[in-house]
Amino acid sequence: MVSEPEILDELRRLRARVPQLTGALTAGVDGLVLAHDTPGVEPEVVAALTAAALGVAVRMADTTGQGDFRELLVRGVYGYVATYAAGESAVLTLLAQDRVNVGRLHLEGRRAGARIGELVDAWEAKAQEAKAQEAKAAAPAPAATPAKTPAKAPVRTPAKPPIVRTRSARGSATTNARTTTES
Hints:
Blueprint: H1 4-17, E1 21-28, E2 33-37, H2 43-63, E3 71-76, E4 79-86, E5 90-97, H3 102-138
Antiparallel strand pairs: 1-2, 1-5, 3-4, 4-5
């Protein structure tokens, strides 16, 4: 999977920039945890719920003609849950206190989502390339065919010259079948 230490470093830097964050989690759009820094919260449960909420948010954005999913914000009595797109196949979910500056949360969440998305997408591209190389190596090699020698041109025996039959033109002086007799 993605290099978890790189993503964890990004999550920790994000929490340092926004002190009111109480947790940060990166998950695949399928709900599998990639990395988390969520003390006191079950990351698998948050990732699964994020995937469910993401499905609804994507459908809502599509149905209303708003385009591709970018972010989702849920506000509860005690704080916020914000989810941001992170590349093609991952999301970043942030948990924040009620007193967080929401503008700052969005700014930093979007930046971190973009960086994490680059990491995840680069890893997936490498994984796809490795898979293609593996498939290519596992494919049976084509049977070696002996080198073909050029075929000899068929020997042609000279053909008899064609007989050319021509018609001679009839002359204008044709003999009339009727002859005249002199009397």
